Amino acid sequence: MASKAEPITPPEESPWTIDELIRKRATEDPTLPLVSYPAKDVEYVHYNARQLDVFAYRAAKHYVSRIPQRTSSAEKPEVIALLGVSNLQYFITALALSKLGMTVLFLSTRLSDAAYVNLFDLTGCTTLLVDPATSSSARSRFSSYEGLRIHDILDSKQFLWSIEDGLVDTRMDQHLDAHIENLHISWIIHSSGSTGLPKPIYQTHAAALRNYTHNFGLKGFITLPLFHAHGLSSVFRSITSKKQIFIYPAHLPLTGPNLMKTLLTYDFEIFYGVPYALKLLSETEAGLRVLSRLKLVMFGGSSCPDELGDKLVRNGVMLVSHYGTTETGQLMTSFRPEGDLDWNFLRVHKSLKPFVKFEERGPNVFELVVLDGWPSKVMSNRPDGAYATKDLFAKHPEKEDCYKWTGRLDDTLVLLNGEKVIPIPIEHTVRQNECVAEVVVFGAGKPQTGMLIVPAIDKPSPEILEMVMPSVEAANSLVPAYFRVAQEMIRILPFGTEYPRTDKSTVIRAAFYSHFRKEIEDIYEDALTQSAGGGKDMSHSELESFLGTTIRDVMKLEDTVDLSTTTDFFSLGMDSLQALRAHSAIIKSFNTNGHKVGQNVVFEHPNLTDLTSFLKSVASGDELEVKNPEVVMAELLQKYSTFTPHAPGSALAAPSTLVTGATGSLGAHAVSQLVRNSAVAKVYCLVRAKSSASAQARVVASLVQRRLYDTLSPEERAKIIALPSQLDLPTLGLEPADLEILRSSVTTILHLAWAVNFNWDVQSFEPHIAGVHNLINLSLSSTRPSPPTFHFGSSVSAVVATPEVAKEAHSASFSYAQNMGYARSKLVAEHLCAVAAKTTNVTAHVHRIGQIIGDTQHGIWNPTEAIPLMLQAATTIGALPALDEQPAWLPVDVVAGTILDLALDFPEHEARDAVYHVVNPKTFHWTNDLIPMLRDAGLEFETVDRREWVRRLRQSTLSPEQNPPVKLVEFWEGKYGSEQPRGKLVFETERACEGSETLRRAGVLDQGMVRAMLEYWLGGPWKTEEARKDEVLILAGPANQSYRDALRVGGEQEDVRVRLIMLEAGPEELVRRVDSRLGHYMKSCMVKSQVDAKEDLTAGDWDCIPFGAQRTTEETTTSFGELVRELEKP
């Protein structure tokens, strides 16, 4: 909530508005240099107060023709957003808009489109001014946002010319009441968005001007962008104190040499920068000397590592820490008397002291709370008007009112790469080990997680670690790869170690991190820091060989695994932890000549060729150009756009269908529907597996999981042939004989397999793009008269950034894909289909698929997806959000049916490069339709406002095991923690509906579907671990219904869930086997009675798994073992 708005009456002669401040300086000190900005490179031009005022006036005259000026102070100021780099035009534009009485919304250049749109919605922004260099892109990105006018930020030529002698009346607000304007919003800054979508922070003229009076009155140099609160306020503090400030040029990269050139050329008293700039300067003696000559060196934007700060202070630098928030303005600094070395302890000034309190959160851990009444506070989050910052501090052991920032109140750990992890699940698992008294996972701001263990027994650390590792490995299996803890990142603390905890013996996390800070830093130092002189010089070939060995070691690859120089590491299964281990090995072993190798180096260069070239360039001091994702997409398209023409053959084998992705939900439903089609002789499933038995078992297990396998007849099941494959190989990894069978019999190819990983860049999906190329070439190599039709299962994310309505046509631009490698790779594959259709006679159709939900029969929907997790909150916190959304969901079996309609029976006149949107044209309303259906299905919960729902979810005391929805609380906080988000892009479906009766008949979500999904979730996935029954697999022969029921009853009595694997073989084979059993009591004449007693499976027998035992004993045993292994997987 906003603070109580009361006018801050300025002293006499003090300005009421930002514009009045500038005009006042221009009148009183017209020739005083205030702001300096380079005309080129670092050759600065100095602009005095009068110039700034006149430039702003000229700019305002330019903008007023496009942005109507207010007629009175009774009108609310229009919100005008600024999106661009921090150059002179940007700054003058902000002054001009202020002169016109507008509110300026400063936007970071690094936000997502969703974040921008959210800020537009929250602030009521109607006009966006953008840097001309990005104007075209901005117009495309925001074209679908209704009511937003977009104009270019004016060029400097439109205001930057000489000023004639004589007074110029630059005032444009004569018709406005200064006393009222004082309380209007001058600037809107936004939060970083580190825990969700950025939130706007409103600052009145009164609050801003009061904030700017807190300054050191020194001539300064700033490297911070003006759209950051600290950057903007630093500039205006200088203007307020009549001191000149130099702004680092936006067109130059932030490097040590560029900084040094400016610092050596001009005479400064204070430097404002981020810790990264200080690190660059601290790396040379010259940089340390120039910093030591300044009166003050201030940093902001992030915390400064103790090692860096101590080094600067030891070398005579007067380093001052600054602390403030966008919501409160500047609060504290570490400004101190000469000789005081406590640079990282902030001082509570006497003027601030009445307005803050430090609330204890643990032993020497305090949260800062800013009380109502502090002049520059513009936000509150407590009923009494106070603002709780969630920032934690430690008191100085001796000095009064001195505090050191130690971290955030939130338990969530945000790793260096931005991944968010909740430590509770992994800690809970390890804590169960009898050797462990307490365990704490750490890793905030670091490249990987680590673990400190307080032992419960008094034994040597190596012995304890050995006993604990099985629990760590078990815990690692429960969490994503980027969160797993490596053995070298674990430390065993001494037996009996005291640690911060509550009276309930619960560890106090923030206090724990603070108490064991040195131990934690030592772990990272050991794991990631290159030892002095440890790196070796290597030739290009030596480095490539070393990297190949390193990648094999960290990934534990078998010698048989092909790791070529162009193999993508992630196609072999590399995870985040392995990538970081590879980075660690690189910096310890390879001499980079002092140049930094980023933590993400393996992610950004995921094959031996690229990684070797990059590291060699780093060592030589050169920089490789980072390619734009759209350029990479174009290169991938070019690389795979050559296809072998089809040579018509005469093969007329019974038509069959080839399917990829059969181990997934959509693929499984497609297979089950295909085998029921009498026109389809065989369904070949290409599966990543080591053997045919393993491939077949994976497909069967997938069908079993979806309760589909038991519904198929023996004849239908016999149509399914799974083949082990590797799609990125030209031969698809198939045996020559299998390849020839496919070329002669396949008439339709459904490509539904794709990796779902939102962290990969588009280049890491190259094996999947190659797979599309290879499958199309398979079609073109057909020995039939015409090539099989090819159907690619794409995603609506491939075109989600399309302006206005997404048409059923190929995308006009690579920029229309969602900003992630997954979506971009899908769009590249779409373009491949278009190229193939235009350059050959193959039919290559694209099926863009929207939100898939559970099937219409059983409602089976993966419980770990976002929507099922949200609905689960009804059972964990007893509440669901009231959303104003209209979803367009399609059941998975309907999606499969739609694709098969379009693939098997499309019109003859249909274009060979057709695109379909497999999206439900019928929508429903979340609150008006879904919420009542959930209640009617028996779910009991309260409906609350979306922000209240997020608050309850975050404040839940249940663990993630008990309350799985909490795992996505950050995602929902970003989506629903503020004003209502805008509607989604509209997808045309006319072509798909015309070609698919299934889609035309698809209904909107109904009560039966909701009930089926709830029954599935409540029957197993939503149960706690303790409530879930153990499962027993029973191998059985032909059986009747009463026999099956008796086994189930027995399972219930033993409190276990029974699943029956029903062996099947023909009567003749059974007779042969009985006759071959020498001395056995059973005779062949008894077989008939056994077979006659068998009763077919019914709809309720989904827990029965038919298993063909017609093959040899060895083949049957092998296949059975593979199937059991697949069924045992979670």
TrEMBL record:
SMART domains: PKS_PP (SM00823). This is Carrier domain-containing protein. The keyword Phosphoprotein applies. Residues 541-619 form the Carrier domain. It holds the Pfam family NAD_binding_4. Signal peptide: none annotated. SUPFAM superfamilies: Acetyl-CoA synthetase-like, ACP-like, NAD(P)-binding Rossmann-fold domains. Transmembrane segments: none annotated. The keyword Signal does not apply. Keywords: Phosphopantetheine, Phosphoprotein. It comes from Sphaceloma murrayae. GO terms for molecular function: phosphopantetheine binding.
